[in-house]
Amino acid sequence: FHAQCLQRLQSPRMDLCHVPATREKGWYLALMAPNVKGPNYAWLDPSRLYCHPQGLQDCVADLLQPFQGDAIDMVAGIDAMGFILGAAAAATLRKGFLAIRKAGHLCVQTAAQPYTDYSGREKVMEVRTDAISPGLRILLVDQWVETGGTMRAAIELVERLGGVVAAPLCVPTGVAAICIENSEGGKWIQERYKCSHCVPPCLQPRFDQHQ
Q1: Which of 17, 51, 60, 67 measures 20 to 30 Å from 173, CA to CA?
Q2: Using one digit for the tens of pLDDT, what is the confidence trace for 2-21?
């Protein structure tokens, strides 16, 4: 599996219709493309995964598997790539979808939260205030959790408005992403919230080291 991932990551093109005979958890990670544009970009681009119909379906199914039987009222996706997985998860669960956006895009009343993203840039995140009622159980979805700053800002917004990402004395919803790195921020989130991601344990160290 490891060798297969490395081989596919080095391939400039890929058959987006091919489905392996044995679909182990995370097989679709090999569909992702490495960064070829330098340090101003993320080290890996997952968007090619979304072009593969079976890959996308299996990715969403793996993300949702730990939450089977949990009470989820709504799925929230984080601007921008979290919209893809979040909307797909919401459709699968037959729940509503809430977009948590970068500042300046919502023309309604919003709550705002400053944060520092994975590249060290200072930004502000917003969410509309009329969609989250006290006690609403929300599954937060993003494409990737690297330093954890973006996800922590989203959690802060949801909880400030009374939403539940995870709490004692109730069935927890939580956080889902293709990868949650074992950074300081990633560990903080995993210690406090129910989390789901797609990277097999044998590959986690390589993802943490951006290899």
Answers
A1: 51
A2: 555 556 555 556 678 889 99
Q: What share of the chain is helix, strand, coil (3-state, %, to 5)?
A: 35, 20, 45
Check which CATH number belongs to the domain holding 153 and give it: 3.40.50.2020
Asked if the structure places residue 2 within a domain, the reply is no
How many degrees, rounded to 5, is the angle at CA 184 between CA 181 and CA 190?
A: 60
Model confidence pLDDT, tens digit, residues 122-167: 999 999 999 999 999 999 999 999 999 999 999 999 999 999 985 4
Domain presence at residue 169: yes
Q: Using the structure block, give the residue that is written with the tokens 């601007």.
A: 79
* Distance, CA of 72 to CA of 90 (rounded, Å): 10
For 1, which DSSP code? Answer: -
Range of the domain at 128: 69-208
